[in-house]
Amino acid sequence: MNRRTVMAFCILFAACLAPVFSTGCRRDEPEIEDAFPVELQGGWKRAAVVRITDVPAEISQVGNPTAVAVTTYTGQGAVRVRAYRMKNQTLAFELQQKYHNADELAAARGPLFYVAMLTNTDRGTAMAVLSELRRAGQ
């Protein structure tokens, strides 16, 4: 076998195996529903998770989320929570630092950015749910 034949064989071999290796390296992103555990410590239970498409301008200015969903946790009250899956945890952390809305509280966990709405609930209750959501991922 000469050098040209060996080189052609290597190129052909690499071309045949490229699809096998490229699919093996791809990471599948978890479903956005997995951002909300069914139960949290403290007696919080999750309602149905609904995917949504609207993203506030404050969030899209930092980065567009790959998925958005909303649910309500009930326990010692009811807290409505939105989750934004960002492209990486740096963006989620940056949002936690920059996001300020008088009617909402925010927290980040990995690439997830959570917003708890203070409609019909107090800050302490909303903060308890956000704390448990952050702890659930550790």
Task: Give a verbal description of the structure.
This protein is 37% helix and 27% strand. The protein is built from 4 helices and 7 strands. Strands 1, 2, 3, 4, 5, 6 and 7 form a 7-stranded antiparallel β-sheet that branches. The radius of gyration is 22 Å and the shape is elongated. The mean pLDDT is 86.
Show the helix and strand layout.
Blueprint: H1 3-25, E1 39-40, E2 44-46, E3 50-51, H2 57-60, E4 67-75, E5 77-85, H3 89-98, E6 104-109, E7 112-117, H4 123-136
The domain tally reads 1
Distance N terminus to C terminus?
56 Å
Low-confidence stretches: none
Shape: elongated
- What's the helical proportion of residues? 25-40%
Q: What portion of residues belong to β-strands? A: 25-35%
Question: Quick one: biggest sheet?
Answer: 7 strands, antiparallel
Q: How many DSSP-defined strands?
A: 7
Q: Enumerate how many helices there are, as a single number.
A: 4
What is the H/E order?
HEEEHEEHEEH
- pLDDT averaged residue by residue: 86
Using only C-alpha atoms, the radius of gyration works out to 22 Å
Q: Would you tell me the structural class of the helices and strands? A: alpha+beta
Quick recap of the structure?
Helix content is 37%, strand content 27%. The chain is an alpha+beta fold and 138 residues long.
